[in-house]
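User: Predict the full complex structure for these chains.
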Amino acid sequence: MNILEISSVSKHFDEVRVLEQVNISVEEGEFFSILGPSGSGKTTILRLIAGFLYPDEGDIKINQKSIKNFPPEKREVNIVFQNLALFPMMNVFENVAFGLKRKKLSKETIKKEVAKMLKKVGLNGFEKRKIDELSGGQKQRVALARSLIMKPKILLLDEPLSALDKKLKEQMMLELKLLQKDFKTTFLYITHDQSEAMIMSNRIAVVNEGKVEQIASPFELYNYPASPFVASFVGENNRFEVKDRNQESVITENGWKILLTSPEKKEILKNRKVSQMFIRPESFVINPKEKEVLKGKVKTILFDGPHTKIFIETEYKDEILVNLKRKINGLKEGDTVSLGIKEDEIRLF
Amino acid sequence: MKSDCSKNRLLLIYGLIVVGWIFMLIVLPHTGLFLSSFTNDDGKFTLANYLKFFNQKIYYKTFLYTFFNGILIAFFSFLISMPLAFFLTKNIPKKVSNFLLTILLIPLGVGELIVVYSWMVTLSDNGLIKHSLQILGIDVPKLLNTPFSMTLGFVYISLVFMLLPIMQSLENLDNCLVEAALDLGASKFTIIKRIIIPFAMPGIVSGTIMVFTMVIGDFLVPNILGGKSALWFTEIIYNNFLTTLNWNLGSAFGFLLLLGSVFVIWLLIKITGQQYEKVVK
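Assistant: Here is the predicted structure of the two-chain assembly.
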C-alpha cells in the first residue's frame, strides 16, 4: 500500500520553476531515498511533505488523504534536519520529550516513553546530558529519537549524515537501516550522496533540475539507468559522445568504432537515435583472452584496497577509467594493454 | 630578538595603563567612598551613616521605590524589545534592519539631556500631546511630573540597551529550531516560550542588567520628567553632596546603591540559570 503519494506536484519561487510535475509514491515501511545534486529540488520536495511549503499544482496524499493544505503540526510526518536542529538550551530528555509534551501526555507516560526510546537508539542514561556535551553520532541519535518518538507515518531525513566523517557516516548508515527495520517506519531520505542512497534504500528517486529522472531499486538504477543523467550521476561511468552509427556499430566522437552484436543492442540501433554511450569502469576487461576491442596505455594506477582504479588513454585519445578487483597482474604505468568489454553492460542513449 | 623585546615592552606599557586605570579610577575612588561612608564629621569611625538609612522611612522607602521601578522599567523595556529584536533580525533583510537600527540609535547620539528636555516639552501642559488632544476636545489628565512621564522617559532612553544584546542573541538562532518545534507540534506560544526566549536569555539578562543599572543610577529623568512626585534614590544622594553638604552620608548611600544593584544582578543571573561569562559577553 502506498503511504505517500505525490502527484503532479509543481512549485516555483518567483519566476524560477523548482519542481515540475513530480510524481512519487512511497510504499509503507519502505526506505525510500530522493537522490539529486544540490539545487535539484530534493529539499523542496521534503519541505512540501513537511508542510513548510505548499505546492502550486498537484496533490500530496498520506494514506489516501490529501494533506496539501495542512500546517506542519497537523501532518503525521517528522523531520530530522540537516543540522539536526536540536534545542541547545534543553538536555537530551527535554529534547526527546518536546513533542510528547505538546501532545499533553502525563508526566509518567512521557518519562517512560523517552526512556524506552533512548534505550532503543543506544543512549540510555543520557537523559541529563547537555546537547553540546554529545559527540556527532550521539547528537544524530538524539535527533532520530526526538522524531521517532512521535510515531510519524513517515520520517523525513534531510541529509542528516552529511556533517559526519567517513567512518562514522558508514556506521550511522548501518544504524539507520537497522533502526528503520526495527521501527518499521517509512523513511524518506534526502541526499546528494549516491553511495548513502544506494546502501540504505529499498528504492531511490533520482531528481535533476526539478524533474524525477528515474524511480527504481539501487540495483536497477546502477545497471539499467533510464537516462544519461542517471547513468553518469549514479556510480562511476565512462561516457562517450556518439557521432555516428549503423546497423551493428557505433562510432564515437574521437573515431572509435565499436561493434555491437547482441540482439538487444541491434534492436536499439535499429529503432532508436543514439547520441551517448556509457560503459562502467568494471565492464572493461584488461588483456582479455578473446575479442580485443581497444588498445590503450596505462596512465595512472590508484590502489584503494579492494579496488584498483586504472586510468587508461585509449588509442583514440579518450581517457577512460577501468576498475579492477585487487589483483592487477603486474600492471605498471606506461604499459600498453588491450581491452575487452562485456557488451551487455554497455548502455546506449 | 629585538622585535620580541620591544613587543614585551609594549605589552608592559599597555598592562601598566590598564592596571593604572583600574587602580586610579575605579579601586581608589571607591575605596575613598567606602572609607568616607564609615566616617563622621570629626573624621572618626562610625556606623551612623548606615543606621540613618534604616532609621528614616523616607530613605529606605525611596531606595525600594527606585529598585522596584528599575526592575519594572527593565521589564517594560524587555516587552518592547523582544518582538522588535525578533522582527529586526528574522523578518526583514539585513540592510533594512541595519538602517532601522541606525535610526533607533539617533537619540543616543543627541544626548540624554536633550532627549529628556524634549520629552518635557512634549508632555507639558501646553505641549504637543495635550494641546492637540484639547483641540480635538479630549480632556487628558496631567502627563508631566507623573510616574507615567518618568517611565516613558526611562523606557525611551534605555530601549536600545535592551534591544542590542537581545538582537545579538537572536542572530545566532537558527530558523531550523523554530521549524523543528513546529514539526513536533508546538504552537506559536510554545515556540516563543520554550525556544525563542530561552535562546535569547543571555541577551535578555545582559540587557536587563544594563537597563536596570542605568535606570537606578540615573538622575536626569526622575529630576526633569518625574518632578516632585517621584523621589529617586540618586536625588537623595545628590542632595547630600550638593545641598546639605553631608558627604559622608552621601557616600554611604552611594555605596548602598552599588551593593543593591550588585545583589539584584546576582539574583537575576541565579534565577535565570545563566552563566556569568555568557551574560558579560
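The interface with chain A takes residues 174, 176-177, 179-187, 190, 194-195, 198-199, 201 of chain B (CB under 8 Å).
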